[in-house]
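pipeline: protein-struct stage 2 | run 1193 | ANKF1 protein
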Amino acid sequence: KMTQQMRDLQLAQARKPQGPSSPNAAKRLYRNLSGKFRVNYTSFDEGSLAGRGEKDKLRKSYLFQSNAALFEAVELQDLDRVQELLKQYSPEELDLNTPNSEGLLPLDIAIMTNNAPIARALLQAGAKESPHFVSLESRSLHLSTLVREAEQRVNELTAQVVNEAPNADCSEKEKQLKAWEWRYRLYKRMKAGFEHARVPDAPTNVHLSVASSSSVQVTFWEPLSVNSAVVTKYKVEWSCSPTFSPPLGEAVIDKLKNLHFTIRGLVSGTAYYVQVSAYNMKGWGPPQASVPPFAIPSNWREYDGRAPRRRGQAEALDHLLGQVKTVHQHCVCHEPCKNQPQSRKHSVSKSLKHLFHPGSKFLKTLKRGLYLTAIFYKDDNILVTHEDQIPVVEIDDTYSCLLMQDFLWFTKVSCMWDEILWLRQCVTVSQSSCSCILQTRFKMLLAISQMQGLLGIQDLGQVFFEPVKDKQGNILIVTLKEVKTNQTFESVRWVPICKLQTSRKSVSSPEEPTALDTLLISVQDKLAYHQRSSHALSPGLYLGYLKLCSAVDQIRVLVPERLPNILCHVKIRSNPNISREEWEWLQKMASVEEPVPAEPEAEISQNHLFQELQVAIKELMTLVNIPLQEAKDFRLYSQEVLDFGGQVSFLLLLPPSDDVCTAPGQNNPYTPRSGFLTLPLQIFELGEER
């Protein structure tokens, strides 16, 4: 009766077509329609449709067919087709959680036929179980009704086929009979799958950690047993009592892409116990207590009440810059800057026309001197002038040896592209001392203003970490900026990088290329560096390795090429928080004069952070090519945890004091493998801030 009511309701809504005439017919149906499913609806000529309403009807028709194909793919246990449909359509377009005429959802069929791969794929896409199955009895009754009605229909069709003479109607009834026989076997298999299933075992590897001073995080894995039905949700419970009486709260997790949950709004310093249980179509399984059994919300700063290092620093710097501007308000240089209209920030499409104006002052060739070049790129294309040249302007034609301090000063200026006019005018007033350094830096500001004016763009991007030089005495300071807008620019030449490289006629020999030739040859490497330097780490706690090397005029830091804005590192865990208890343990280890023994005491071995650090140190030493036995003299930086935005934190591993910074001429017996580079410390700090 219940099944008949569901069927009447669904038929009234005309949600689903008649079932396939046979298993092979069903398979042919959704396979042959697969080409139609891939139609690009936006590619239809509007004139070929009667109107928007007809177009919407056509799209709904395709989506209706895709929904039917999904059911048939699940019934036929075609995992590849299920994954293809889930990738091609959204859950809403597939009506993923709308029951068919039998009151079933795709997930119901998958779990009752015990097809774990398809069930997991559906769960990842957000599939739910049918809301009609409010109890075990209702599910059992529904399945029994489906089996009984399918069996009755098979018997009726069998009698008709046997009693009727061979004709067209009889042939059609034979097809219907085969289809119902197949559906009868499907329902029997679903009923048997439900009857033989049992509640799931407890989840495994239930780990509890402190996420902050007011939250804890629990992570867990699926139950180990493969004999029970597919788990469709989990329940996390927490309490201040180890008996969970009274319980403080619970949460049901039905999005199974990531098996973890953060319990928020807890009281700092209070112990919380957590347990997790799994659910399948037979009900809830037994709970599994976490390891450790409880956690106390806290943060390492509570150990000594230390405030965040960077708290208020940005505001203080803004205030300091405002004070400097206030002091210079009496200067004649300040008024033009103040009156500079905000419309200076032209649209890119309008301002880039300057590139093709015949009166532009971009240089074609380099003489002996210091130059500025700006590389703007989009995908695999690069912006060039009307003469197919990378934009280059002159800084100083008498400057043949760029001092590192001048270059580092330029990189700091790149953080204030919007303030160049003000800086230039103030330096103009203060250069009466005729200092060579001020003269050079003033010319740098002039060149920046010229480049901004010719391009019509203030933000020239990020400075590459080292200038490009040649043996003729030319020095190129390179800035890099990615243009992400999809706007089409008029009269702007975006030239493929490979075409620019092959079409440029070099005026130098391969043995002694000019700085421009060197730039073109290595431009892909520089663009790759620029893109990688903007990548961010995923949330978590990391172990970083600090290694410096010094030269006459600079200190450089070792970084990985794949992420040059971060120290060499490995991930310790996904939880970035260090609890007060963990920090106390780290402080205790740092104060021990003797090294930690190879076989730690029982209580230390149970410290989860200790185990995580052991694994991370081994991995990090392998990464930077240092023998593990050398690590016994290394030490953890125990003054603070380096915090980056609250989602990423670092513990630093330091070599012995004498080896932190390698002096000029000092031999380093352990050279890192390929995949690393050394950046000037100031450049690294700027990249980190970005």
